[in-house]
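Chapter review. Work through the record for NDMA-dependent alcohol dehydrogenase before attempting the end-of-chapter questions.
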Amino acid sequence: MASTMKAAVFVGINQPLQIEELLMPEPMDGEVLIQVAACGVCHTDLHVILGDVNFPTPAVLGHEISGTIAKIGPHVEGFTIGQRVVSSFIMPCGTCEYCQSGRDDMCEKFFSLNRLKGQLYDGQTRLFRPDGSPVWMYSMGGLAEYAVVPVTDVFPLPDAVALDEAAILGCAVFTAYGAVRHAADLHAGDTVAIVATGGVGLNAIQWAKTFGASQIIALDIDHDKLDLAKTMGATHAVHVEDDPIAKVKALTFGKGVDVAIEALGSTQTFSLASELVRDGGRVIVVGIAKSGLTAPVELQRVVRRGLQIIGSYGARVRTDMPKIIQLTASGQMNYKQSITEAFSLEQADEAYTALRNRQIKGRAIVRMMR
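Structure tokens for NDMA-dependent alcohol dehydrogenase:
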């Protein structure tokens, strides 16, 4: 194995990602080294690049990956070198109170160490420049040729699932599953509105279809995205500048939808989602917003009309990822159609520029071409 690898390094707010040679990372106790096949391009990374979310530099971003196992650390069983695997963006420690109670989507160490400091759970990074200086990890630091991942977040990938495309199972598909299955508690026959139809929104449409929603109404500012949403299972598409509240009410006999999923993270999309639900309806907030951003909500309506506002960060890693993989392998989830662009590692900065400029219709991936 080589002594170095290529990675796209985030060096500062609003600065281009730089392709650098980093030392080959080494898996420690309970970890594996994955040779990355592909990494998804997510808005959450873009928030870091733009300074909307604080994160230390230098760092390697990228948090939804697929690949093959290149090396196995101590005390890891059940995996083999060369095995095809996929990982979610949430990497559970497996030992904190939330992990032990079945809510590993709320893992304390993931938030306090990884999301705030760019470290794994011994308080250290696995990434270093050739001079020995540390490079921090956003999740596993997937915008690189290799990534170290705790074994709690490594899942076998069946041959029926294409390796590169499987990368988006770890965030876009995973996040959408958590929103629809757990936060929304969707039942067959429910009506659903998806506000913002990017990578997560498109896959929320697919999960809503899988779980039996009777109406799936896609809302976006981009006509091309709405066209793609209809091909992925939306029963109706509404442009947000075309009196969307009246349109959705008309489609639901004046009542509004049972569930509205907000998948962007802005004051405007949250406010719109909250106006689309019927009395007793559920507003599921998925999109990551800029730190400190707030949005108004009418408290009397929350109380008197039973409006439910539920945050959803992701699915349950260790229980849901195997189900997600099984459902996609069996063809019940057409996630592939949401992948609309692909870039090479050397083009990683171009990918996020395109995302910032709203030029990516669905989800883009970065392929680690060697």
